[in-house]
Amino acid sequence: MNKAKQLFAGLILMALGLGAAHADYTLNLMKGVTKVSNDIYDLHMLILWICVFIGIGVFGAMFYSIYHHRKSKGHVAAQFHENTTVEIIWTIIPTLILIGMAIPATKTMLELSDIDKSDMTIQVTGHQWYWDYKYLDNDIHFESHLDEASEKVHRTPGADPRSVPHYLLNVDKPLVIPVKKKVRFVLTSTDVIHSWWVPDFGWKKDANPGFINEASTYVEKPGTYRGQCTELCGRDHGFMPIVVIAMEQVDYDAWVKKTSEQQKQKPDLSDQTTQQLLTHGESVYLKNCVGCHQINGAGVPGLIPALTGSAIATGKWESLDGFLRAGTSKMPKFDKLNGKEVAELLTYVRNNLGNKVGDELQPKQTALPDDDE
Amino acid sequence: MSAVVDEHDHHADDHHDHGPAKGLLRWVITTNHKDIGTLYLLFALAMFFVGGAMAMVIRAELFEPGLQFVDPAFFNSMTTMHALVMVFGAVMPAFVGLANWQIPLMIGAADMALPRMNNMSFWMLVAGVLLLASTLFMEGGAPNGGWTLYPPLVLQPITVGKALPFAIFSVHLLGISSIMGAINIIATIFNMRAPSMKMMDMPLFVWTWLITAFLLIAVMPVFAGAVTMLLTDKFFHTSFFNAAGGGDPVLYEHIFWFFGHPEVYIMILPTFGVASTIIPVFARKPLFGYASMVWATGSIAFLSFIVWAHHMFTVGLPLAGELYFMYATMIIAVPTGVKVFNWTATMWKGAMTFETPMLFSIAFVVLFTMGGFTGLMMSIAPADFQYHDTYFIVAHFHYTLVPASVFILMAAGYFWLPKWTGHMYNEKIGQLHFWISVVSVNVLFFPQHFLGLAGMPRRIPDYAVQFADWNMISSVGGFIFGASQLLFLYIVIDTIRGGTGEKVSDEVWEDAAKHSLEWTLPSPLPYHTWTTPPSVVPTEHVLDSH
């Protein structure tokens, strides 16, 4: 009922051309928070108005003709079919308009490609299906996945996306940058082509496997800016958002200090209860495995093996551990997981997703020598 | 001015004037240009509904946020297959079907120059499309890396399953079929014109198809080469597109779009030709600016080869590349503008009537121009850094394909079916079909501009809730548009079976014979026409030069 009302309202708004008056709808390009994004917005508006103007002229003439020059009104057809002067005019005028448009477009293009004299550099790496950020100036390095709430809802039939704040546009760890600093991004990928887009910054740039692209931004205003991957990169292409938080320099410095310290901490290898292992294990699973093996462990017929009832998943845990860390030609290796995460994940996979091995693994069992040094 | 037809002498030619073969085998072995044209058109119509059904799946999933009906990988298969089926199974074959019917009639030729190859190119098309469709039933599903088939995605075992070699072989078959069709059209136009028809006397439809045929011959091999490189990368350990082996995935994009940009013009140039044929008939005026129409078509075709990287502005081109491809793309607006102005000037001071073909043609001019406007916006490279790969792009190319190419195909159906069958279609239902289509197509695609500008990427099965309202409206438009095409199906069947029962005249439309040769022939058209070429051809559009 509610849907029907919304739909009806939407149609009426559109019919009346009043869409813009409704706060929930965004109809136009956003201006964004950088000089480049504002210049692009201005270009967009300039071209849009030129098109509207030409459209009114051409369609106006056409509809005048359709209204007046009809046989039912007794109009007799003229027989002209050429007019060199007119034809030259309507070739030259559009050419001049195009030149007029090319000038500001070129200026903005130069501005957009300017990546010199940056204050800091962040390496952005696309993965199926998350982003990975590495601060080249201070060793901060983390992955940024779709947040757990969105992850669960989009994988659960019948769940309500409206119950999740920023559904599909939220991540577990956002990228943090300082305002009023020129940040250079170097973009690449480890698997397929992705594309990194934050509309508020005014550009997207492809992340190509084996190659590096560059781009830069200079954000004026602190805030949270959201975007998405914009190059089809496989089944979960729609589920790898981007969140960037721009902070004042002091806050940024504090964040850098805190994050560096956190990164240096060794994982906590103390024993956990079964429930804790399962809960944490689910989080590890949702981040690393769910994209391929699915939320119920069923895999995808013909493409991805099921974990449910799998001989490897339910066999000896040592061999599952080894399999996970080494990977195969089809599955990437997950040697990035530490002993704690492996214990949680293995316990979860072996005792959930339709499996009931009945064991539990503690972090100390799965820890590698360098985990608890 | 108007044609004086050589009353071709049936009695003298009796021993040649045999009818079609009996039974269903007629359709398998036929070498008659009309039969093959019919086969192409019916096949295209069937594929239009198959591709349309896939679009309905897409719009149903996007009706609301959240995943309701399909798995994301199947969703990606649908977007991929929808595009491939519509481009290679529906729009291109439909125009080849029109070419088969109309080019010999319009130039006064007895048939296509290479009739057996004509039969072969049709059946190869069927084989190619069936092979492609068979991947839907394979383990791992149909290709789901997008119709552009970008590596490394399309080569990934977890993405493509077993479908890749089948899809690639299918592309090879479709390519060979198209090239043979193109050779046939070029050979026919160059060699089989009525002796008195000079190149600059040819109807615009013939001109645009001649130019399109050259585009096809130029770019289909490029596409075949690109997908063959995919095949060897996948199965024979080459590294054309694999950085680890010294290749470059972006190289594929360059090769693909060197094919892909002319390809989109292959779908629009014959559209221009049909519009230039229909509008003058219902404006009761000669086409305005015939010579400049030919010139503009040629320029657009030439430009289509040197603008490919505007599909790749964000791929990491050097600055000089970005600027060059921006300027080159902007120039296309000039000849395209000339065409739109010419159509407007053709209507200007005419004595217009608005039968269904004219309604679809007018809608084409208006809505194609809107697609052209957004194309111009996207040619501005820095702005494309925002527009690229969003729903703004989806809106743009659907405006240039659905209310442009598809509408013109509908117009052509209404325009020529009475001539081909000798029966009149039901004008009331035709107009109903037009009005529902023209409204719903805009409800379907116009909101997608808003979605794209607001930041919704294309090719996603689920979206953030702020995109919910426009998606729902777009889906409703889609369902209505999809359902209303059943009216067209009804009209086609009804017209073939007798239509309104009204016997149509040879001209069908008032003074149509002034514009083109086919209207001087009897309705319905005999199985063989122009066994002796016409001695005089209509040259109204080139008055001054005669």
Summary of the model, kept short:
Chain A is built from eleven helices and ten strands. Chain A is an alpha+beta fold and 373 residues long. In chain A, the strands form two sheets. Chain A has a five-stranded mixed sheet, with no helix packed on it. A five-stranded mixed sheet of chain A has the order 4-10-9-6-7.
Describe this structure in words.
The complex is a heterodimer of chains A (373) and B (546). Helix content of chain A is 40%, strand content 16%. In chain A, a hairpin with a 2-residue loop joins strand 1 and strand 2. Chain A has helices at 2-16, 35-68, 84-112, 148-155, 249-264, 274-288, 290-293, 311-314, 317-326, 339-350, 363-366; strands at residues 120-127, 130-135, 141-144, 175-178, 182-189, 194-198, 203-207, 213-218, 223-229, 241-247. Chain A has eleven helices and ten strands. Chain A has 373 residues and is of the alpha+beta class. Chain A is elongated. The model of chain B is unreliable at 1-15 (pLDDT under 50). Chain B has helices at 25-29, 33-61, 72-107, 115-134, 157-160, 164-191, 204-235, 249-266, 269-283, 290-304, 319-331, 333-347, 356-379, 381-387, 391-421, 427-453, 468-496. Helices cover 64% and strands 0% of the residues of chain B. Chain B is built from 17 helices and no strands. Chain B starts with 24 loop residues before the first helix and ends in a 50-residue tail after the last helix. Chain B is an all-alpha fold and 546 residues long. Chains A and B meet through helix 1, helix 2, helix 3, helix 4 and strand 7 of A and helix 3, helix 5, helix 10, helix 11 and helix 12 of B.
Keyword list:
heterodimer, A: 373 residues, alpha+beta, 5-stranded mixed beta sheet, elongated, B: 546 residues, mainly alpha, globular
